Amino acid sequence: MATIETRRSADGTTGYRAKVRLRGFPSQSATFERKTDAKEWAKQTEASIREGRYFKTAEAKKHTIADFIDRYLREIEKKNPKRFVDVKKLLNWWKQEIGSYLLSDLTRALIIEQRDKLLNSTGRKGSKANRSPATVNRYMVALGHALTIAANEWEWIHENPMRKISKLLEPRGRVRFLDDEERTQLLEACKTSTSPYLHTLVVLALSTGARHGELINLRWRDVDWQRRVITLHDTKNKDRRLLPLAHYALQLMEAHSKVRNIASDLVFPSPSNSQRPWDSRSAWEVALKRANIDNFRFHDLRHSCASYLAMNGASLAEIAEVLGHKTLQMVKRYAHLSEAHTAKVVQSMNERIFG
Predict the structure, then answer these.
(1) pTM score over 0.90
(2) Distances (CA, A) of 340 to 12, 160, 220, 318, 347
(3) pLDDT at position 51, please?
(4) Could you tell me the strand order of the sheet in which 2-8 lies?
(5) Domain shared by 14 and 87, yes or no
(6) pLDDT at position 128, please?
(7) Same domain for 313 and 283?
(8) Could you tell me the CATH number of the domain that includes residue 267?
(9) Same domain for 121 and 261?
(10) Using CA atoms, how far apart are residues 135 and 263, in angstroms rounded to an integer?
(11) Domain limits for position 245
């Protein structure tokens, strides 16, 4: 129930104190210069309390955005250390830019303003290129997930202000794969590398389509020689995935196992610390330079594997299964490479139904 009290101060001015008392909730009050403002506040506050919205708003007025980000990072570090590493840098950017704001002041307009600032700024020191829409979307997704937790689990805010903000339009997925000549040159450069691991690592990536992190953290206990498969336990989408070991990749892995470091279960341990994965970056960059290959990243070996599968008749569903994608959306970028296979299927169907 709401009541309005008239209050007169020592200097003769009049104010109006609105009080809202509802059974089962702490009483709320506020003072206004105008009676109409006091009535409006009392009406809105009573409705918000009855609908379960008011105290979430009250919490938002107690905490800054920095408080909110710090709590989220503490919790996510315990629950999901891998995600913590991915989002810490992204959320710390928001903390640096708008951390002093109260959580109640985090509006869609403020988020969009910061999003546009991100889009028109460079990522790394010395870089002249602005952040891409895809990169900005990652910053937005990180903040959005944290705000969902704040709304649904902590009840610090009534609703996630990110809900009605659309993602920036991203360009089509990159499809950069090695042609036959480039592949030969790269493998030759890897063979002559000073690192004994690089050639096996690159062949595994080309053969299985596995990500760099999945391979570099691989352990011998995950290799099943009898079934000729590698089991990936910690994948990007949290599902276990099997990598078939075949042909050249199998031969290299068998040879590698005979000279393995018995002090470590890692397939590619660091030479300086056998309990840590090997840092392949330097050896990889040297091999690219020797092979005279430009505009190519290690992740493009995964694209190369998918492209080779498409060109050798694999369906999009089969490519998705090999790469570990849950939907076909991510592998549609390779559809144009399987045109010959698609034409063959259509021709077969026509011959069957029309004779």
Answers:
(1) no
(2) 90, 47, 39, 16, 10
(3) 67
(4) 2-8, 14-20, 28-32
(5) no
(6) 63
(7) yes
(8) 1.10.443.10
(9) no
(10) 40
(11) 180-349
Is 279 inside any structural domain? yes
How many DSSP H helices and E strands does the chain contain?
14, 6
Domain count, the chain: 3
116 and 227 part of one domain: no
Instruction: Write the single-letter amino acid at 18.
Output: A
- Has residue 164 been placed in a domain? no
Q: Are 130 and 122 in contact (CB under 8 A)?
A: yes
What span, in angstroms and rounded, lies between the C-alpha atoms of 18 and 183?
Answer: 76
Query: Are both 98 and 245 inside the same structural domain?
Result: no
Check: CB of residue 205 under 8 Å from CB of residue 198. Answer: no
In this structure, which amino acid lies at residue 69?
I
**How many C-beta neighbours within 10 Å does residue 286 have?**
16
Q: Which residues of the chain have pLDDT under 70?
A: 51-57, 123-128, 171-174, 237, 336, 338-345, 349, 353, 355
For residue 241, the one-letter residue type is: R
Q: Any idea how long the chain is? A: 355
Distance CA 157, CA 130 (A): 32
First to last CA, the chain: 82
Reduced to 3 states (helix: H, G, I; strand: E, B; else coil), residue 159 is: coil
Distance of CA 44 to the CA centre of its chain: 39
Instruction: Pull the structure tokens for residue 270.
Output: 């660091």
d(CA 331, CA 124): 30
Q: Same domain, yes or no, for 131 and 95?
A: yes
Quote the tokens at residue 55.
């105290």
Residue 97 lies in a domain: yes
For residue 172, the model assigns a pLDDT of: 64
The alpha-helical segments, DSSP class H, found in the chain are 35-50, 54-60, 65-79, 81-98, 108-119, 133-149, 180-191, 198-208, 212-216, 247-258, 281-291, 300-311, 316-323, 339-354
